[in-house]
Amino acid sequence: MAIDPKEIIDAFLQVAQLAHVSIAITQVRYELLPAPHKRPSGLPPGSQAVYAFLLADRCLKVGKAGPKTQARSTSQHYGMNAPSTLARTILAHRQQLAAMLPAERRNEVEPLHETTVGAWIERSTTRLHVFLPAASGALTLALLEAFLQCHLNPVFEGKVA
Fold this sequence. Notes:
4 strands; 6 helices; four-stranded antiparallel beta sheet
């Protein structure tokens, strides 16, 4: 599955319209940080976002961050400092992750541990951010998150994680 952020935004705007959420295409923007990526330092002022960690053509995790929960997007998923992070999930599901990698890269998963998994995430995953105005509210952000979860079908989402 190739990720096309413009197609994703167009489809989300249709969903938002069906949900009677008033948001214009000019209010939604995206950012794609190809692997290797640097951890984001924060959200743009006045915005909130839904983010996805992508490994080649697979989505690993989708999450959301508002102005008061930026750490969720910028740092928590790279470490063990929160209950449900991508790093924890990777360490708990190494075999599942290794199976998604090309044969020549599978050996890099087994030696990962708490202090190295964050760097592996930076080296190996692409980040997709879809930004909304903070003024659009928490429900619109939740709608976008649910839409991206359905659209991208993340491997490590819900009870699997």
